[in-house]
Amino acid sequence: MATNETIRTLMKRRSIRAFTDQPVSEGEVEALERAAQHAASSRYFNDWSAIRVTDPEVAGRLAQLGHQDYIAQAPLLYVFLIDERRNAHLAGAQGVDTSSDRFIFNTGYVFLQGQNDAILALHAMETAANSLDLGCVILGSVINDVDALIDLLHLPALVYPVLGLAIGHPGQEPDLKPRMDPPAQIFENRYPELDAEGRTQDERAGRALADFDQVVKRYYMDIRHMDAPRRSFSEIIADQAVNPGAAHEPMLPSIQRQGFHLDR
């Protein structure tokens, strides 16, 4: 496989949930934020923003919402946002009627576009941080209670939270989690056909997924938890598919509260 420093950085990424007391320098912060701003943006809308959380009370509340104490302990903490408010304001100042049916910044398509842009920016920041030997963890947990997060961050209409990102100097060295072999996840020209029981008819994909089940068993049993029950990837997914503890409140009302109309 061809490789260089960027590819090596991407291949060794892992989630860091414990940080040292060493602060992230101002120069590093500037580099991370600039890297995020240089991520791809659909139609050049630049329809994302990020809030850097420096208030310990706000960070503590984020940790409560996410049920993860380490969120409040991160030296550098961000919440990335879909931000159509800025563009709506700019358009309105140019005479656009933002209440008309022709206005698009509150539509489902642009909402998804803004979400994609926010995630691309977050990933650029995470990769830049990893390249500086900083550790990161992406925080999906901050949207456990979206309405509370919206209120906490004083988000106006047409702004919606997507993900958080905690950054700092690593205080742990977790093992790299295994990944599927490419045939199980990367296909050519079309999605593989499934049989009546939902199993792939692509022999290479099926074999790669079966192998991954065994790799995950060894990872959790032999590497991480010697006394843990042997569980394959398929078993973990089946458990999570019906685990009520993993469920969230319906998000559509919160999205509508922020002024987005996903049916448009």
TrEMBL record:
Family per similarity comment: Belongs to the flavin oxidoreductase frp family.
PANTHER family: OXYGEN-INSENSITIVE NADPH NITROREDUCTASE
Protein name per its UniProtKB record: Nitroreductase family protein
Highest taxon of source: Bacteria
Nitroreductase domain span: 11-169
Keywords associated with the record: Flavoprotein, FMN, NADP, Oxidoreductase
Species in which this protein is naturally found: Bifidobacterium favimelis
UniProt xrefs under InterPro entries: Flavin_OxRdtase_Frp, Nitroreductase, Nitroreductase-like
Keyword match Flavoprotein: yes
